Amino acid sequence: MSNPILNTTVRYPSFDLIRLLLAVEVVVVHTWASLDPHFSWPGFIRAVPAFLAVSGFLVLKSFANTGSWTAFARKRALRIFPALICSLLLGYVLLDYTFLINSLTVWVTGGLMMPPHTNSALWSLAWEELAYAVLAILWALGAYKRPVYIWLLLAVASVISWKITTMPISPYYHVLSYLAPAFFTGNLMFLYQERLMRFGSVLPWVFFVVVCLWTYIPIPGIGGDMAPSVVQAFAVVWAGMSGAKLIPSKIPDLSYGMYVYHIPMILFINAAYKPGNAFLTGTLLALALVLFSSASWYLIEKPALKLKNQPSPAAEGQPRVL
């Protein structure tokens, strides 16, 4: 299969909104779960696989813009580490040294080691970083020049995920199995972006809303939980790349900060103030999280992103297309 014509210069404004919605969903679910031990609502979208799907699209776009391993690694590091380091320090300041060490353990092991009293949200970052490395290797092997290879990887990853989701094991491994299919779905949607964009900007959002309500619509399930996860990944990326600008002005990208900061804030609020209901906890958390994430964006993350947009000497003269 010949490689599709790609556009690496288009700005997709809806991805900022999509990621913010996913982050808000994670915060709501974790806040509720911290107050109710019997809480079991899985959310509208499996957020971490959806984040991986978005990364599969946008990070491949980033690599296609440079074609340089060093520039790619520098961009990813500048996006991930400033807020991550800040979140670790926040956990130490609000809670204690044990929380800091436990959170480092969760991040480094990708959640395979999950001690109590920790920033459990950090488990996904290691797997996202591994996905970046896989993308770079596939790029070097020329896999993205022949999308059939990415289709094969998606098929293999989906079969493995289906088998895992039918096993009576920890739900963590079920979620873990969703990540590769979601990431390769995002990759393929980047490769076929021009074809997908022909459907306009309304249909992708309609499909996204329908998929969000999937749990409440009597659609027969296939492939265990894996098939809905792949469909969710497609819906999230399709809405993000639709080109529809639902919010007139550009919104700050608070999603990553909200994701890495919310757990230590939830634990601190619950321990320090002991609010008696979810509404009070949610109100305190929303105010603190929005303020802190905004400060992080404007004072730490955005300045770091300006550095990543500066071309490195190694990137000069590198190809910008697949």
Task: Provide tags for this entry.
single chain, disordered C terminus, 322 residues, globular, 12 helices, disordered N terminus, mainly alpha
Radius of gyration: 20 Å
- Largest sheet features: none
How large is the share of residues in beta strands?
Answer: under 5%
| Stretches with pLDDT under 50, minimum 5 residues | 1-5, 313-322
- The helix/strand class is mainly alpha
What level of helicity do the residues show? Answer: 55-70%
N-to-C CA distance: 14 Å
What overall form do the CA principal axes indicate? globular
Number of structural units classed as domains: 1
Overall pLDDT level: 84
Question: Can you summarize this structure?
Answer:
The chain is an all-alpha fold. The protein has 12 helices and no strands.
Please describe what this structure looks like.
The protein has 322 residues and is mainly α. It has one domain. Helix content is 68%, strand content 0%. It contains twelve helices and no strands. The longest helix has 31 residues. It is globular, with a radius of gyration of 20 Å.
